[in-house]
Amino acid sequence: MQPLTKFALLVLLYPAATLAMNCKGCTPLDMLTFDKMVNAFPVSLVKFDTAYPYGEKHDEYAKISEEAAELPNMFIGEVGIKDYGDKDNAELGERFKVVKDDYPVVMMFVQKEGQEREEFKFVGEFKNENLKSFIRQNTGIYLPLAGCIEEFDHMADKIVNGGDVAKVLKEAEDALAKIKGGEAKNKRRAETYVKIMKKIKADGIAFVPKETERTKKMMDGKISDAKKKELQEKINVLRSFTKQDDSGAKAKEEL
User: Fold this and answer.
1) Measured over all CA atoms, what is the biggest interatomic distance in the chain, rounded to whole angstroms?
2) Phi/psi of residue 39, nearest 5 degrees
3) Per residue in 71-110, pLDDT tens?
4) SS3 of residue 211 by DSSP
5) Residue 104: is the preceding peptide bond cis (ω within 30°)?
6) Considering the chain, what is the average pLDDT of its residues?
7) Does residue 181 share a domain with residue 68?
8) HSE on the CB side for 79, CA within 13 Å?
9) CA–CA separation, 61 vs 176, rounded Å?
10) What pTM does this model have?
């Protein structure tokens, strides 16, 4: 049998195995390496999944692993669990209460000096943007989204964590005033944060999900690519005002 024919046969017989691969930038973990690697970093993000993961959610996680590759204080790992044969890593799944029906499950481990390791489980819409918010809100590590500004995102965190909206709004307005006229793009983006904060002050945090849905509906209409990009950036900014545990995207656990 010719080599090419053999390869084609393998693709037909084992499509998942041939299409799947570890994330670029992900480190495969097993029972022997898990704690050794996770304990070596202040922050570790780990995906528990089938032994041969593929598909949209796997791709979304891969985006995070590539963007975080240059961060010296953050580790990105992956645990592939088999439910057949030797059942590789099944014990890790049991240890962290991960079940097959929930795959993929992402957990974050935060190790602070002199303190017990904290463990957070991501639950919610499995999107790169939501994973970034989950990381930032629980660790302060910033992975930017299109249209977002780090300084203003941290102000948004203060609001979603129960800070005084009026006080944060004043801080944002002061920061906006310092943006120079030549930085038109940043000024426009900063103005978006300020407008959202004003609406939250007037209408409460419930404004955020309502405005998010309204903006998404606008994106579904017949609009130019430039307008669609602008609206996507607005949605990204609105995400900064969405606390992940309030939307079901974070559950802190003592495991």
Assistant:
1) 74
2) -75, -10
3) 999 999 999 999 888 899 999 999 999 999 999 999 999 9
4) helix
5) yes
6) 86
7) no
8) 34
9) 33
10) 0.74
